Amino acid sequence: MQQAKWIAQRQARVLPTHHFHVVFTVPDLLKSLALYNREYFFRRLFEAASGTLLELGNDPKRLGAQLGITCVLHTWTRDLRFHPHIHCVVTGGGLNPDGERWIAARRRYLFPAKVMAKLFRGKLLDVIAKDWNAGELVCPPDLAQPRAFARLKDALYKKQWVVYAKTPFGGPAQVFSYLGRYTHRVAISNQRLLSLDDGSVRFITRGQKTATLSADQFIARFLQHVLPSGFVKIRHFGLLAAGNVNTKLEAANHLLQKACVSPPPKMLLPLLAFFIALYRPPSVTLDWRARLFLLTGFDPLRCSICGAIKLQKPLPRPPAILDSS
Questions:
Q1: What percent of the chain stands above pLDDT 90?
Q2: What is the C-alpha separation between 309 and 71, in angstroms, rounded?
Q3: 113-133 and 146-158 helices, crossing angle to 10°
Q4: Which CATH number covers residue 141?
Q5: Are 162 and 57 in contact (CB under 8 A)?
């Protein structure tokens, strides 16, 4: 229900335009540093990923507009290994600097993947190196010597990082569906757990493939993905940042809505106003059960096995009739 409520709240802020899905990943060489500095590393991931997209979007040679970005942190693979990466939902265009024009991006292309990867690598490694030299990071055993960190940094700069764009979203409805799958979610769902036999846990990884881990190993992998207390794994930047919701986001939404709706001929305006006044649909307030069903397709009143209604509200009792005699 928390997931459904969150989707309903986000629905009002998704712009009516196409969206892109960009994923920022980091090499395995950074794994130990990330595990010893989890909250720090996750925060820097958000900053580097969003900063990369915003910088390329504001570049006049590419788009010259401020994008709207929603970032979601993931830390797991299908077999529960530690693999921090950022999923980004990016608007297919942005608001120009003076806030008076929406600049649309191409339908199937945002920015070159290699350009995004190099810029993301530079931003993340630059801030990590500065904080390391300032003594603000916890030192993993494999990086105890200063030369070890220098070798790691050189290897990371030489390595080709992977940033890729998935199939673009077709419209706002697909954005809701995607975001809903990753809110209020942990590393593995109950449906993927198959068995616990002789101290081993067997679970589904992908498709028909499975993995079997000892109970200790399973718990150890699972606990790697428990986020620091109070850490927010979904963040918004650019047009969707909290400071722009009531200003730039409203302006962008107005421009997009205006572009989508062509004004009717002037001679039809009086007739259109008459029908609008004649038909005013009643405002309906949905209870939590109805809203949950509309947003998720789950009916809490219906048995998932037999399909019968298992919970019903009792009918109100008729008022007692007093015998006047």
A1: 58
A2: 39
A3: 170
A4: 3.40.1310
A5: no
Give the structural domain span for 192.
188-224
The reply to whether 8 and 104 lie within a common domain is: yes
Looking at the structure, tell me whether residues 106 and 173 fall in a common domain: yes
57 vs 68: CA distance, rounded Å: 10
The number of distinct structural domains making up the chain is: 3
> pLDDT of 153-168, one tens digit each?
999 999 999 998 887 7
SS3 assignment for 109-153? CCCCHHHHHHHHHHHHHHHHHHHHHCCCCCCCHHHCCHHHHHHHH
Largest CA distance in the chain: 102
pLDDT band at 204 (very low <50, low <70, confident <90, very high): very high
Look at residue 311 and tell me whether its pLDDT is greater than 70: no
Are both 213 and 276 inside the same structural domain?
A: no
pTM score, whole prediction: 0.79
User: String of b and e for 164-199 (b: at least 16 CB within 10 Å)?
Assistant: ebeebbeeeebbbebbbeebeeebbeeeeeeeeeee
Please indicate, yes or no, if residue 261 is contained in any of the structural domains.
Answer: no
If you compute the radius of gyration of the chain from its CA atoms, what whole number of angstroms results?
A: 26
Higher pLDDT, 35 or 144: 35
pLDDT digits 0-9 by tens, 86-132: 999 999 999 999 999 999 999 888 999 999 999 999 999 999 999 99
Q: Is residue 19 part of a domain?
A: yes
Does some domain include residue 234?
yes
Tell me, what amino acid is at 183?
T
- Give the helix/strand (H/E) hosting 237: strand 234-238
The token pair at 76 is 């797991």
Domain assignment present for residue 170? The answer is yes
